[in-house]
């Protein structure tokens, strides 16, 4: 089994704070030849990502166990997993735009600069990473899924593999629909999922995840994304919970990272 390396005080200058970053090096990383380089998947809400004693006290995605299982069965090659913890200010830092229905003011830009200007250069400098959008992905759930899609839309030269699990595409009056107006014309693979009847009301209005995710999938199809670039899973029993994302993660990783 590989290793989870935890950096608890990674500086984020524009945010005026430090962040906790968890980096999983797969089992193959230490045994691979020195010149071998690995693709990288960035994951949001890092405290919920790994099966590890210092992860969140509740259920996690167990992404490290899923990755190694898929590698052993030959479905995917080994990937580095870089997971960034969210904070008490999660709703704002994962908001690319305001959500007036919930009185949330957008604070995503400083967080995005942290990912692009501080964290990714560090990972590429310290670890043997493979460059290019085909070998760099980003994945998240809920508002983290919205952020993953936002990064894929606005930085397609960096992130080519995008995973949105129960993504909050309805945030800010469906603004992602109006911002994603054409095919990026870059190499891309986009995975979307949600519970078919998944509904929550955490911030003052009802969020219909199944309907919104289905609508966004069809929106991207109309923009020209082909079946090999875009995939949708609607889980008949899916809820808005880590255990549901954990259950869907093996297929999500297999389709996205193969």
From TrEMBL:
Record-level Gene Ontology MF annotations: hydrolase activity
Highest taxon above the source species: Bacteria
Regions crossing the membrane: none
Alphabetical UniProt keywords: Hydrolase
PANTHER family named among the record's database cross-references: ENTEROCHELIN ESTERASE-RELATED, FERRI-BACILLIBACTIN ESTERASE BESA
Name of the protein in question: Alpha/beta superfamily hydrolase
């Amino acid at each position: 089994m590989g290793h989870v390396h935890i950096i608890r005080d990674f500086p984020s200058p524009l945010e005026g704070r430090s962040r906790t970053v968890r980096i999983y090096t797969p089992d193959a990383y230490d045994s691979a030849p020195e010149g071998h380089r690995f693709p990288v998947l960035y994951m949001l809400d890092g405290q919920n990502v790994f099966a590890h004693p210092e992860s969140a006290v509740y259920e996690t995605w167990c992404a490290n166990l899923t990755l190694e299982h898929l590698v052993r069965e030959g479905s995917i090659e080994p990937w580095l997993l870089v997971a960034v913890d969210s904070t008490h200010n999660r709703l704002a830092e994962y908001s690319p735009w305001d959500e007036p229905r919930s009185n949330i003011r957008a604070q995503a830009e400083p967080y995005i600069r942290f990912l692009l200007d501080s964290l990714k250069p560090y990972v590429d400098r310290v670890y043997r990473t493979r460059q290019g959008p085909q070998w760099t992905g980003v994945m998240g759930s809920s508002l983290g899924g919205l952020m993953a899609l936002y990064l894929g839309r606005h930085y397609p030269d960096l992130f080519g593999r995008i995973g949105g699990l129960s993504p909050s595409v309805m945030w800010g009056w469906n603004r992602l629909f109006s911002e994603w107006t054409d095919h990026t014309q870059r190499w891309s693979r986009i995975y979307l999922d949600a519970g078919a009847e998944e509904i929550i009301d955490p911030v003052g209005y009802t969020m219909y995840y199944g309907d919104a995710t289905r609508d966004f999938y069809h929106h991207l199809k109309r923009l020209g994304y082909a079946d090999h670039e875009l995939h949708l899973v609607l889980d008949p029993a899916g809820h808005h919970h880590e255990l549901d994302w954990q259950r869907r993660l093996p297929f999500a990783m297999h389709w996205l990272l193969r």
